[in-house]
Task: structure prediction
Amino acid sequence: MAAMNLSADSVLAWRAHRHLLHRPAGHDAVAVVGRLAGVQAQVASAAEQAVAARQPTPRPGTTAAALAAGALVKTWAMRGTLHLLPTADAPACLALLAAGRFWEKGSWQRSFVTTGQLDAIAEATASALDGRVLSREQLTAEIVERTGDQSLAAHLGSGWGAVLKPLAWQGLLVHGPADGNRVTFTRPDTHLPDWPGLPEPDAAAARMVPAYLGAYGPADPETFDQWLSRGASKRATLRGWFQELVAAGELVAVTVDGKPGYARAGDVEEIAAAEHTDEVRLLPAFDQWVLGPGTRDAMVVPPARRADVSRAAGWIAPVVVHRGRVVGTWEARGGEPEVTLWPESPPVPADRLDAERARLSSYLKGVGDA
Result:
């Protein structure tokens, strides 16, 4: 049977609904983060705003409250970047990253530490964080003392956390409660309620691949892996995860304007029938609307404008979205969103844009964003 062909317009309309961009009632911070399969949190205010952008009445502080309650966890996850994840979903997500064993590559070890040193760091960390919350400085000091390896201090003290990321992926540490401006760490199994430990990679894939496709599908395995690990997973393993789900009837092959990919079987008819509204959305920096499919997705970001969205030093600009496509960017100035629309984009309804700017302005002033 030939794969069903879906249009880019219907795919984007369906994704917008799945991303809660119509702002239905009843979705708290945990539900929003779960629907998006995680929210990047390198910039905490951007993560908070990503949730607020999908709620009918945004209230500052909802992600912080969910973190404090243990319903969300902050840790290094997809692409080695900090994310908010629902605590219930985090083990599966981390298990897929741990399965890649990226830290065993020679290039990683030459840049950072050997696998032997990392094993010693992991053992020391497990002991140091048992039932405790430590700052980066405190954790570094304890690891150096427990391993007797003074050379580790520089790597452990780095704000990029390169040496700590493999520990996060193995479920050995997560970010702890905020301590002013200081980062803290703790062990998930002693800090979070009912932490189950990491599942086997195949079981994790059976959960996370459909979760990804439920927000960013249809997509091919390579696009999923760019989102997960910047393309670092083993090809055979990656394709095996998808084929197992196809064989189980959970995924089906489709095309989007002729480009092959996979969708959840139960979503195909809904995708085909999806239609756009004329709403305009101002989404924050690092929003999942562009990070999920990637800024190379020409359906979402016009190729000629990719540099306006994906900027120097990994910065992903706040974007204006109309009918699923990025049509401009914006910046907050004095608590007001200053919008730049791209002249070559289709016209944006002025009244819808004005309403969105007013809503965002109210939110920004509420959180003191200058």
